[in-house]
Specification:
single chain; 328 residues; alpha/beta; Spore Coat Polysaccharide Biosynthesis Protein SpsA, Chain A; 18% strand; globular; Nucleotide-diphossugar_trans; Glycosyltransferase
Length: 328
């Protein structure tokens, strides 16, 4: 019996799908199957998939239904005791499945294992680390922010998947957060304290369609707060603040890819980040965001991009970031 099913939704993924699948093939744990849902691709995604000679790879083609629909279809084809989702442009370190499975086996009360994440750009350059340490009942922490970062992170017990049902196809941008919240409402989480997820941010991804991303994230929060118990309703303002902060961070992250966005939209997000949680004005990080936005306005996004590249290069050389995140 297959232990782990890896579900990969793929839409026009010809540029990245091979590298993504190779990161599964190179896993130190080998009892897995890959379920690729070709979600109406119009490029050479299928041709690329046909070059992979591994009988653990199964490809199913459908008309386009979006990432939630593709994941739901993948679940119906999956035979594993555990399921993990992997976006077609993200990557895993080679020990991701092994260590997450070990964590779940060591904590039978948990239904979900997740790891630390590094975001990367289109060329694979590391951008930002995310190293949360929440474990056990993480529902309240997850209401504040999606600390799993992406849909490519957790390993989930089949029983947990069955208990919450399908991804919500009405959410097109925050379906991951909604699904993790539904899992957290019923199951405990366990964390693998290691960078194992390489989450790619690209100008073609939903992460940089900022107006749409904000709307769908706010929609997901509204849904979540309607389901949350009365004693957790006070978390809404903190969650709102975190959403607006994330929009500002995504804009700053987009500068190195020449992504254009209305600066008034960015300022609106910065204002709402502070308005919904004024205590953030006590944090030095808030002032760093303000300074970055002001510099972008004053010296232009292009020059700010060059400055951020220089800062990242200096930080990377000091911390040896690349060698850290790619350790097996």
């Amino acid at each position: 019996m297959t232990t782990i099913s890896v579900v990969i939704p793929a839409y026009n993924a010809e540029k990245t799908i091979l590298e993504t699948i190779n990161s599964v093939i190179l896993q130190t744990f080998s009892n897995w199957e890959i379920i690729v849902i070709n979600d109406g691709s119009e490029d050479k995604t299928l041709e690329v998939l046909q070059t992979i000679k591994d009988n653990r790879l199964k490809v199913f083609s459908y008309e386009n239904s979006g990432v939630s629909g593709a994941r739901n279809r993948g679940i119906t084809h999956a035979t594993g005791e555990f399921i993990s989702f992997l976006d077609a442009d993200d990557l895993w370190t080679s020990d991701k499945l092994e260590l997450q499975l070990s964590a779940l086996q060591a904590h039978p009360e948990a239904g979900v294992a997740y790891s630390w994440t590094y975001s990367i750009n289109e060329t694979g350059e590391p951008l930002e680390p995310f190293a949360p340490v929440y474990a056990g009942n993480v529902y309240a922490d997850l209401l504040k922010a999606n600390f799993l970062t992406s849909g490519s992170n957790p390993l989930i017990k089949r029983a947990a998947i069955n208990s919450v049902g399908d991804f919500d196809k009405n959410l097109t941008g925050s379906e991951d957060w909604d699904y993790w919240l539904r899992l957290a409402n019923k199951w405990q989480f366990v964390v693998v304290p290691k960078y194992q997820i390489l989450y790619r941010r690209s100008t073609s991804s939903n992460s940089f369609k900022l107006q749409k991303m904000r709307k769908t994230t706010l929609d997901a929060l509204d849904k979540a707060m309607k389901l949350a118990p009365p004693e957790l309703q006070y978390l809404k303002n903190e969650s709102l603040s975190n959403i607006y902060k994330y929009m500002v961070e995504l804009y700053i992250g987009s500068l190195n890819q020449n992504y254009q966005v209305d600066i008034r939209f960015v300022i609106d997000n910065l204002w709402n980040f502070i308005k919904n949680r004024p205590q953030v004005l006590k944090n030095i990080y808030t002032y760093k965001l303000i300074i970055k936005i002001l510099l972008t306005i004053i010296i232009s996004p292009k020059l700010m991009n060059q400055l951020l590249k220089y800062i990242r290069k200096r930080k990377s050389s000091k911390q040896s970031t690349s060698s850290v995140i790619m350790q097996p």
